[in-house]
Write a structure and sequence with these properties.
2 domains; 489 residues; alpha/beta; 8-stranded antiparallel sheet; 15 helices; TIM Barrel; globular
């Protein structure tokens, strides 16, 4: 047992009688919870499906300690210390968060996925992927003091993304709930400062990352071919999809087939509604793919769908119908909610919840691909949201001068950040940077490539042939000595 746990057991033994009585009342009478509302911090979903969970928890008067797969949260008298690291014995302190009035939290709900805490001034929710949701009930000063100097400091207004080679943290006050006020932000140093003034109901999402280990086995089984985009749909306008013989051929080299909206849906717009253009063709494709050991991922977009409908639930219900009726293995999510004039619909807690709900819908064996470029915004990547995905696709339309640009290192790359499998779209790369240098960078970052919008008889280009060669060398090194391979990455 660790020293922290022993300290908390001692504290529990010294609790005042009145607090013990309160705990007994709360445990013994379920009706005592009826008046305790923690819906503001309850986020639907299940982190355990991606190997992230609440590992342990200890509670005392005015104090608690909660360990997740990737972090530790220690609270004593108004101060919450956030530690990060997948090695439980060697976690580092990222930040100390201070709340007004030294709130005394009561544990209301607990599971492997989350612990929900109530106090008279604010509520806290702590989730298995090392995410903290803060919800004040009255005006609050929220003060964050850093304890590490990030290599990359992404900032948009009061939103912060702070990363170095060991991981990092994010701080996201909600923009459109009550209107937070920035009191002070000072970056560029180890003891950085981020202070906010929050109104009642102005929630803040804070997360440490990475929330889970990188899945090396999955990374070598995630060879993806895409079809059905605009170009393919122009050639096959009636919803024709790859014939059985082509699918069998593809299955020799690829594990997953991603089908885009052009050939898939009646409406040509990416926002749907998502009604299949040719049901018989799609059902045949799914059957043939499964028979040949391939998984099928279908296009969707919360961003474009919400622009059309302004209805989060209708998007989810359409995705559930695709899952239930057509036995697809997963979704390609082309954008969540983010700012784009004139829509201004960014809501990162809704994004967090939607990705958790989709993961729960498709389960641990399902696939979630997320395309989240957001035109290179310094806080475009949200590692705690990405951690529910299998694959993240970044870089579309984002110019870069070098394969070592900060955007590439800290947003395209996912290894050590969210530990998903990253794919880098380089449609805007300068001519001075050749495909070999890009592919070498992809391999170095432990990202992967996919094969674009494939028609039914398309041949690999030089870039993808080079990638397959490099990928083969990487896989052979992994299979030869897995332990040494991982230690040297």
């Amino acid at each position: 047992m660790g020293d922290c746990a022993l300290v908390f057991f001692c504290l529990m033994g010294l609790m005042k009688a009145k607090y013990l009585i309160l705990l007994l009342l709360l445990v013994g009478f379920s009706t005592a919870f009826a008046a305790v509302d923690v819906n503001d911090i309850y986020i639907q979903g299940d982190s355990t499906l991606m190997g992230m969970k609440i590992e342990s928890s200890y509670f005392a008067e005015n104090a608690f300690l909660i360990e997740t797969t990737g972090a530790r949260f220690e609270y004593v008298k108004g101060q919450l210390k956030i530690y990060q690291g997948l090695d439980k014995t060697n976690r580092r302190l990222l930040s100390t968060v201070t709340f007004d009035n030294e709130p005394n939290f009561i544990k209301v709900k607990a599971s492997d996925d989350h612990i929900l805490l109530w106090s008279k001034d604010l509520n806290l929710g702590i989730y298995g992927n090392s995410t903290l949701i803060v919800s004040p009930k009255n005006k609050q000063q929220l003060k964050c003091r850093g304890n590490f100097k990030p290599d990359y400091e992404g900032r948009y207004k009061g939103e912060l993304l702070l990363i170095d080679d060991l991981g990092g943290m994010e701080i996201y006050p909600q923009r459109y709930e009550a209107g937070y006020k920035i009191k002070k932000i000072e970056l560029g140093k180890q003891d950085w400062i981020a202070d906010y003034e929050l109104k009642a109901g102005e929630r803040v999402m804070i997360a440490a990352f990475p929330g889970r280990e990188f899945d090396w086995e999955k990374s070598f089984r995630m060879n993806i071919i895409g079809t059905g985009g605009r170009a393919t749909a122009e050639i096959y306008p009636d919803g024709e999809l790859p014939p059985d013989a082509v699918i069998r051929e593809w299955s020799r080299k690829f594990d997953v087939m991603y089908v885009s909206y052009g050939s898939l849906y009646k409406e040509s717009a990416p926002g749907g509604p998502y009604m299949l253009k040719n049901k018989a063709e799609f059902e045949r494709l799914v059957r043939t793919a499964h028979r040949n050991g391939m998984k099928v991922v279908a296009y969707s977009s919360l961003f474009y769908h919400y622009r059309r409908t302004r209805d989060i639930e209708s998007y989810y219900e359409e995705m559930k119908l695709l899952h239930d009726k057509y036995a697809i293995d997963g979704l390609y999510v082309d954008g969540l909610l983010f700012d784009q004039e004139p829509y201004w619909i960014d809501d990162k807690i809704v994004n967090f919840e939607m990705m958790r709900r989709l993961r729960r819908l498709f389960g641990s064996e399902g696939l979630i691909f997320y395309h989240g470029t957001s035109l290179g915004s310094p806080v475009a990547t949200i590692p705690n949201v990405d951690s529910y995905c299998d694959v993240t696709v970044y870089g579309e339309g984002v110019a870069f001068r070098s394969v070592k640009d900060p955007y590439v290192r800290y947003q395209v790359r996912k290894y050590g950040i969210s530990n998903t499998i990253g794919i880098w779209l380089t449609d805007n790369n300068p001519n001075s940077i050749g495909y070999a240098e890009i592919v070498d960078a992809v391999i170095e970052m432990n990202c992967r490539e996919w094969w674009g919008d494939a028609t039914f008889n398309q041949k690999f280009n030089a870039r993808f042939r080079y990638y397959l060669k490099r990928f083969g060398i990487l896989k052979k090194a992994y299979l030869t000595d897995k332990q040494h391979f991982i230690q040297t990455r």
